[in-house]
Design a protein that fits this description.
alpha+beta; six-stranded antiparallel sheet; five-stranded mixed sheet
Length: 341
């Protein structure tokens, strides 16, 4: 069995195994688990984009191609055949790189264009560069000589095709989280292994409290999950950690005024922060595999309407919000003036 087939087999089994079982399987396959995980990054990014398509609910159908058969027949098939609800169909290539630039040879690109043309279909490339997704037509890649950089983001057609908004968050937003390792202290029910259980969660704008979550029955408890993508971005910007006895206080904030987060990030983040089988975190792949077995998993997720409602709530409570729609920037006014549409 080739290494490629071993990795595919491992990926199929991975969602059903704990860490120790994964290590044992890797040994049985004659491979190192860390090396397998490194090579699975690209496969997981493919699944992440499939989840984006599913969560944004713009597709009528998504058809995948068997990569092994394509390699055997040396056929330049794409990753997916996508049919949108508006009737548009196209072949889709999904690519990921941790480098500053994605590159494809002009010969390879042309073969893939010709394959899509046989079926009278256009070809698009979904490209992740350093975690940021972009979508371009094959014609655009030809114009760029097969080289795409992060600076091409402004030419991306992703938000347009997904019907997706991106939100611009201002400097002055801050999240304060308090954790405790004292088991007698009442918590929200969320645990962070390093600091204990989450006791309270507060969102501030210019030091004015917007809401506070305290206790498992707080009416704002779901806000902590809806805003996980925001907290991820805040923590990557500025994070101040203080210790006081059994308590850990974490303040996370923005240091600049133009912080853009796409809607699909808010849909993905709760999954990335959720564990199953006690201590295993979901990946896009494990989530899809679990959803195949239990269709209710997809029904329990947050939807776009929840994200837009949350953003409107922030605007209604004085946060100076803006959003990007079809490459145009709009102010998100309080509900009395306008709503997202």
């Amino acid at each position: 069995m080739s290494d490629f087939n071993k990795i595919i087999a491992f990926q199929q089994m991975m969602p059903y195994l704990n860490r120790e079982q994964q290590e044992n399987l890797a040994t049985t396959l004659g491979m190192d688990l860390q090396e397998i995980e490194r090579r699975l990054v690209g496969k997981n990014k493919e699944d992440e984009f499939v989840l984006i398509l599913l969560f944004m609910e713009v597709c009528k159908s998504i058809t995948g191609f068997d990569e092994g058969v394509s390699q055997l027949l040396k056929t330049a098939t794409s990753d997916l055949l996508v049919e949108l609800k508006n009737g548009n169909k196209f072949m889709l290539e999904i690519k990921h790189t941790d480098k500053e630039r994605y590159s494809i040879s002009m010969g390879n690109l042309q073969r893939r264009i010709e394959y899509a043309s046989k079926y009278e279909l256009g070809l698009f490339f979904a490209i992740s560069i350093k975690g940021y997704w972009m979508l371009f037509s094959a014609e655009y890649l030809k114009q760029k000589n097969g080289k795409i950089e992060f600076s091409d983001l402004k030419k991306s057609k992703l938000d347009e095709i997904l019907g997706c908004f991106s939100y611009i968050f201002p400097k002055g937003l801050r999240i304060k989280s308090v954790y405790s390792t004292d088991e007698s202290v009442k918590s929200i029910g969320i645990q962070f292994p390093s600091y204990g259980k989450l006791v309270s969660y507060e969102l501030y704008y210019n030091d004015r409290k917007i809401f506070r979550v305290k206790g498992k029955n707080s009416p704002y408890s779901t806000y902590t999950m809806i805003l996980e993508a925001l907290q991820d971005r805040l923590s990557a910007d500025t994070q101040v950690i203080e210790q006081s006895g059994s308590y850990t206080i974490i303040n996370e904030s923005f240091s600049n005024d133009f912080n853009v987060i796409s809607e699909y990030k808010f849909l993905l983040a709760p999954i990335e922060h959720t564990v199953y089988d006690e201590d295993e975190k979901y990946t896009a792949h494990t989530y899809i595999e679990k959803a195949k077995v239990d269709a209710n998993l997809l029904k329990m997720r947050f939807q776009v309407v929840h994200i837009r409602g949350m953003m409107q709530y922030l605007a209604d409570n004085g946060v100076q919000m803006m959003y990007i729609k079809n490459s145009q920037i709009y102010k998100l006014n309080p509900l009395t003036k306008s709503t997202l549409s």
